[in-house]
# Entry
Amino acid sequence: MKSTVIIIALMMLLCTTAFGQMNQYSTSAPGSAPTPTPPSSAEALGLQVPTDIVTSQQTPTAQERTQTLMSASQDAAYASAPAVARSTATSPVYNKVIVPTGGYAPNSLYISYAPRTVASCNLYANLPLWMKTSGTGYIWFYEWYPSGMLDTQYAGYVYSPGWYKRWFFGDTPGWHILQYYCNGWSNYAYIYVSGPGGYWVNPNPSPSPVPYPYPYWDSQITYTYPPTGHTYYSYKSTTSYGN
# Structure
């Protein structure tokens, strides 16, 4: 009986440890990229899923789709805000500036429009990201997926401080946490990706490289899944895979 109790206790401990590891945010980055500090989860910060699904009439142009970073301006970043946002000085809900614990963030990162840092969008939607760098240098961009996986991308070199733009693509339901490095870290930005058509989607989906099989538009969607480099082609209810 005593042995059984000990075995059960050990199993519970292992399960608890495994669960904790599953919810940890990875800091594994390429050798030349700075190692980030793991972010706090949206749940730990008490962030709620924004009730206003950010929709933008902007989509990447054909030229922008080939670029990882584009020059921008402060006017463009703020002009993207809807009138209701421009009439409000600050938003304690969506404009939180969250920096690495015990760290300093000289750079700024905003979602959709400045100074927004917490947003939501539909699955397969694009959102513009606005970056204000305080100096020059190489830019490394980090995206933590809902599973805790970290995707790190080299975005280029900037020769002057200022405003830059890139695009976010919501390819997995749940919370995505973004950050970049350019001779110093930026704040974290949080985006919740919801399913199409207003249907509820599990905020903690099981890790899977397979895209959601029912796009909310009728045209074929093509995208590359960052960890594996595989390209997926989706059309209505069927999905095929290729390398």
Notes: DSSP finds four helices and twelve strands in the chain. The chain has two domains: 40-206, 209-243. The two ends are 54 Å apart (CA to CA).
